[in-house]
Amino acid sequence: MKAGYIKAALAAAALTSAMTGTANAAGCLKGAVVGGVAGHYAGHHAVVGAVGGCIVGRHMAKKHAEEQAAQRQQARLQ
Question: How large is the angle between the packed helices 2-19 and 46-77, nearest 10 degrees?
């Protein structure tokens, strides 16, 4: 059983490192914590939840950064 967890953790680490070209973890850490806790309570799938939370958290952080950049640009034009 532990071998399955180790394989899942290694796969999650490989996926995360492949997704990030730089060390920009904005949103990933918070999303991984929330997803891990949610996954744990939803059938002991903490690793899967953490990976999903990281992906969603990173997406939301990127979306937020783009919105702020658009607002700054809009303020410069006015």
Answer: 20
Dist CA 62 CA 29 (whole Å): 14
Inter-CA distances, 42 with 16, 25, 38, Å:
22, 25, 6
The C-alpha atoms of residue 67 and residue 25 are separated, in whole angstroms, by 18
What local confidence, expressed as pLDDT, does residue 40 receive?
Answer: 87
Q: Taking the model in full, what pTM does it have?
A: 0.62
pLDDT at 38 over 70: yes
Q: Which two tokens stand for residue 50?
A: 């953490």
**pLDDT band of 73, cuts 50, 70, 90:** very high
From the number of C-beta atoms within 10 Å of its C-beta (0-12, 13-18, 19+), residue 58 rates as buried
